[in-house]
Prior knowledge:
Elements lengths: L21 H7 L13 H10 E2 L2 E2 L1 H6 L2 H12 L2 H4 L4 H23 L20 H4 L2 E3 L2 E3 L1 H9 L32 H13 L5 E4 L4 E4 L2 H4 L1 H5 L13 H9 L5 H11 L6 E4 L18
Parallel strand pairs: 6-7
Antiparallel strand pairs: 1-2, 3-4, 5-6
Helix pairs in contact: 2-4, 4-6, 6-8
Amino acid sequence: MFSFPALFLQVLSPHxxxxxAPAQAAEAKKEKPARKFDLDYAWFARELKRFVRDGxxxxxxxxxxxxxxxxxxxxLAELKSSEYETFSxxxxxxxxxxxxxxxxxxxxxxxxxxxxxxxxxxxxSFRQIPxxxxxxxxxxxxxxxxxxxxEHEKIRRDLPDxxxxxAVVCASRSCAEIVARPYKAQTIDEDLDxxxxxFINDDExxxxxxxxxxxxxxxxxxxxxxxxAGKSGALNKFPPxxxxxxxxxxxMPFLTDENRKKLVLLxxxxxxxxxxxxxxxxxxxxxxxxxxxxx
Length: 295
């Protein structure tokens, strides 16, 4: 039986500002340099509100009016790296999540309507776009960057947080659902928690069949299992835990009460539980075809 992650207390600094030396106190009180970049993401917020419909995107309407999106992408391109260096971790995480989602949308709009011929993906899939993640280049902070770079270097490597797998929207129905507002530093922790709860408890991403002794999860957990290991309490254990133990430990805090009870019952019969991954739907998250491709 595996154990679920313990809660840790955050230790506050024992050095109040009043104990600083005069020079240090004066330095601490200095105002931060003025910022030009809009960390409220007003342009992106406006466009998301206009074109997002219940986790799907109205690409057809958005394609006809991209002025607001282009304005936001221009802001991404013109941001100075020196200003980015003043961002907090939360501000950087919100920045890259919004950049990824906006550039993914732009990529789809540039090729919409998608009608590809690769047999192993739906005709309208983002994966039908030549180069998809790795070849298409965009400008952020004056430099070329790909969607692959943003997801795997800027987010997963530099700002690791497994909950981001439920916030980066890869334009498919089995990836995270897009929300009708941008991520912001002030609410990023709560928003990522909500994204994780929404994704994990979705019937298309989780099957907890106690009677049939089956436990299935999204393939995202298969592709990025080690990203979830730390928060699951699985690191530094011997013998190493199985993938299903890592995943169960990770998802436990995000489950609804009903699903949590089911998972506990399943793991009481762990040797006999059939563990597997759900089919992954690469169909475009297009509001226009939401009914015909409904889950």
